[in-house]
Amino acid sequence: MTTRPTHDATDFEVTARTAVASEAELRAVFAGLRDDDPPIRIAGHATQQDAVAAPDTPVHVVSLAPMRRILRLEPDDLTCSVEAGLPRADLDAALRERGLWLPCDGDGEAGSLGAQFAIGRIAPEAPGPLASIGARAVLLGMRAMLAEGKAFASGARVVKNVAGFDVHRLLAGSRGRLFAALELHLKLRTLPRATASFATDELEFAAALRRFDDLRLDSAPPARLWLARSRDASGFVVRGRYDGAARVVADRVRRHQLEERTWRHDDRDDRDDSAAVERVGGAVPPSRIAKLVAALPSSAPVRVSGSGSFVTRLGRDASDALLLALPALDGHAEIERGARARRGRGTPLDPGAVRVHERVRDALDPRRRLR
Amino acid sequence: MDRFSSALLERFGAERALVARDQMLAYECDGFTIHKSLPRAVVLPETTDEVQAAVRIALAHEVPFLPRGAGTCLSGGPTPTRPSLVIETARMKRVLEVDERGLWAVVQPGVVNLALTRHVEGRRLNYAPDPSSQTVCTIGGNLAENAGGPHCFKYGMTSDHVLGALVVLPDGELARLGGPAGPRAPHEPDLLGVFTGSEGTFGIATEITVRLSRDTEGLRTLLGAFASMEAACGVVTDIVARGLVPAALEILDAATIRAVEASVYRAGYPQDAAAVLLVELDGVELALDDDAAEVESIFRGHGAISIEQARDPEHRKRLWKGRKGAFGAMGRLRPDLYVLDGVVPRTRLVETLREITAIGRRHRLTLTNVFHAGDGNLHPNIAFDARDHDERARVLAAGHEILALCVAMGGSISGEHGIGSEKIDHFRLMFGEDDLDVMQRVKRAFDPRGLCNPDKVLPSRTACAESSRWPAMVARVLDAEPPAAESGP
Lengths: 371, 489
Hints:
heterodimer; A: alpha+beta; Uridine Diphospho-n-acetylenolpyruvylglucosamine Reductase, domain 3; 10 helices; about 25% helix; B: Uridine Diphospho-n-acetylenolpyruvylglucosamine Reductase, domain 2; 4 domains; about 35% helix
């Protein structure tokens, strides 16, 4: 375990950084906390520290990055257990060697799996049976620790289980403010036998949406599907990927008159950290994508998945307008990147849900040691 | 008449507030008939407001309350453990909204699972979760129990298909968790995720937003008969390893085959087989014949005694008839049936089944196995006579040993039936004191007064401390009056 004072790298004040390599080391950090010590911010590899709401006080960052082992990999059972600090890209590589994959987005990212779940970015993109359910589909169970130092388990290591309350599901979107996840039990799939990536040329929005919906509502939809307008473009493209049996993949590409093309999301948008431009992420029901796009400035870059999750980049006024407009579309969103005071702002939450969330925080971290 | 009953009658009228003993007999248990207990009263609300009113009346009189759907649960979830108010949601059976292009629907909790699929089938849509009781069980009950079913292997559990819920919390207030855009906003934790499967202990869902799925183009249903359970399980392992993702992988053992074939659920299964494996493939028509041929080849590679592929919908219905009627067929063996529900890693199915057979022999019980092989979700069935106290005690002791075995194999004490009151004494096979403490805290966050379906899922701390006294349930059951004969699940 290493601890060092620091004041760098983020736009919020960090009093110290500690990297822990085991459950015992994390417990020791928690046990050493005095009432007047700064609260703890749990981190993985700190790749997303500027992509979630900043803490309202100086914090002691505790990184789980050294906890990066694959603890168990059972190819025949399609399950594995990993330490929460394992980078997603490392797991993807190990699984690929065995002909397996973790069936949700975020693949190839450098950040840790624990952070991917806790920040809530994991959501299968497919418009098929698992679309938009997110972490629930793949997170079978976990071992975690409360700020008081109590370690606990929830869920199981098998693919089907309803024993006990599924406390592990609270990890998704918890942002490390309820507990620190230590180990994750994950559900895997075998790699598809064939894949075909495709992308259309730029189309007018109406034509692109028709194409997108034809694919989305097909009885065999693509495993990944996006409708996107990049920053410099006037039109929209439809991108996606079919997974499955070789004959089916080829048939679907032919039937929908798609052109096989590799593609990448326009990452420039995500890397522009100009405080004047904010990244807003959220979701709408996929039948309301046209209304979502209509609510955006005509030049705003946006990409929407087949399940209705979206990312866009907007100026502050446009961000505020979108957050106000989304509840009427049954949608929700949050400012993911932007100035410190703005990050974490989102569409208003249901008061009853907020009350339950506060009670859950009171129950699991009554002294608010986790921020 | 007491004030509590008067308040219910005043609010709901005599037709929808049941307070007489003979009116409440149907509510004294669910499909787990070993545990029976009469409620203090039953109400039949039709709206969210009425559910709120019922909860508030219960709170005002310090009476425990619990929701109930169709009563098909197999673990005692909707059976009161104390004199309680049962809030039955069966009259809340309207489909409130369907968004065909958004692929979601909002339903009241009393909508029957299969009725939802019937409601949308004209639009080539369906509701994927299909528990065996889908002709009668309700979406509200499915949500409370996180119900599974034969097609979980490909399509997941109820939790994979629930997007939102309007919930009457145990303090009588409302909370809206998730919605058509997804189960949670990006800046909140997955409260709906932890609510799903909380067995009616975190509140009562009165509107549920579910995902709808597009119908697939085609189906192929195959039945392989094998001379050993090892061979049947080996087929399952090979199918999964090759990257095929069937919609269902169901195995019946020899004793079940014999019971089915001697019953009205006769399906023509080979009676000399040690196991039959039912494989259902769905998806794009173009690929299904190839996939079916590959499955047949795997069957042959494991020495299948016979292979049958459904030629038409009627034939498919016949192949499924034996599987779907398996529990009912057990009625021929003995008057009562205890359906267990454990999970093991799929690769440990064979050794687990061998041990289960030994446990049955040791306790001199009639034990059969029907299971979701793709998920490793076992349903050992123990046929018995509930009037025989000694046999009942052996049934419960064997059940405990089987669940302990599942945990020892790296599995779970429940794959889809829930803990309820049935497995509350088995909880500590899987979870320790600290796990229990954290779960109790989450329960209190939803239900600070502890009146919402108490004594379910989590054992009390005292019970935990006394766990070495197990089987506590055996003692409880033997202290109680023997239950009357039950019907099958």
